[in-house]
Amino acid sequence: MSFFREPRRRQQPFLLLQSSIAQSGTGIIRQLLEDASGHAALFCLLHSSLLSVQGPHVKTHDLLDNVPGYNDNYEDPRKRIQSAVENAPAGPLDFIIDSIDTLSSDIGSISSTYEFLSELMSLIRARSSPSRLILHAPSPSPLLPLLSQPRFSPSLTHVIAHPPALLIHLSTEYLTLPPPLSPEAKFWGIFLPVSERVHESERLIFGPDGEGTGDTEELVIEVIVRGDAEGSRRRGVDRTLQGWSLTRGPCPLAEITALKSLWSRNIAEPVVVDPTQNVSFNLNLTESQQNSRAQVPLPYAHEGKPMDKAASAAIFYDPDSADDIDDDDPDEDLDI
User: Fold this and answer.
1) Region entry Disordered: which residue ranges (predicted)?
2) Do 121 and 76 share a structural domain?
3) 149 and 125, same structural domain?
4) Per-residue model confidence as pLDDT tens digits over 267-305
5) Number of domains in the chain
């Protein structure tokens, strides 16, 4: 089941959304806000387009102009964010920050930002109703390795946005298609190191033959799930690929327009080449030749003699005329 459609009681309390220059994930934030069944609060520090999301239970906080050194009325964003969590109405709450790198830049310290987000995570977990802390981060970001550790949150849903062009690149350059078209072990062994090289995706999008921009309508999301909402100590990590569409929401990869060609390719049957074709002589035997061949006696000493299965193995040897076989000791002249 997609993380969009999970029942509220089963949702992870921490959702880490990772975007890149090659593929933005802001569309996912918009859908989370529009589909929020409970209260949702958005603190917008980077993408102004998210401020246009409207809803009866959605409250947006515009911090785009709250920049230290450029605003005479600058206010530490930590006070406003913490106050919003503490004073949020009772019930389920989706608390979203876009983006944590901008927040870290305003605070001026990565360690201080991490400590503040840890306190925020504790406040979210302390709420009586299932709530989520949703953090949007660019890639690469120095905060990503810290926030993805179990120390910050034992349970985690990590969503990474990828351009569909990346899967097309893997299919053409590495002859590897996404599961189930390829074995999962083979696919992830190639996909992970390539996707972690951020410049690889950027080259596909912004290179000489690139699209010039990430797909704003459809994208591929890598979903990593660790633990569960009930606080299980399950240490296993589930990793899957899903499609996402601006109009349809989560969908199978096969329904992504740019990837349909990967599923529609007809794999041709292997052609068996007859080695006897196009030669200047005949390598085939007629029926009479095959019968004559079968009647030729084999030059074995035991030919035609039944072998006793219980008997021990033996070596049958026919001496040649040139063999010098006698019972004399070949070393009798040695004084041993």
Assistant:
1) 311-336
2) yes
3) yes
4) 444 556 677 777 777 777 888 888 888 888 777 656 566
5) 2
Q: For residue 180, is the peptide bond before it cis, meaning its omega torsion is within 30 degrees of 0?
A: yes
d(CA 144, CA 157): 13
Kindly report, residue by residue over 238-266, the tens digit of the pLDDT. Answer: 999 999 988 888 899 999 988 888 887 64
pLDDT tens digits, one per residue of 131-187: 999 999 988 899 999 999 999 999 999 999 999 999 999 999 998 999 988 999 999
The model's confidence at residue 325, banded by pLDDT at 50, 70 and 90, is: low
pLDDT above 90 for 6: no
The 3 state secondary structure assigned to 130-184 is CCEEEEEECCCCCCHHHHCCCCCCCCEEEEEEECHHHHHHHHHHCCCCCCCCCCH
Based on the domain organization, do 64 and 194 belong to the same domain? no
Residue keyed to tokens 């926030």? 147
Do 147 and 13 share a domain, yes or no? yes
Q: What pLDDT does 97 receive?
A: 96
Domain extent, residue 123, equals 9-153
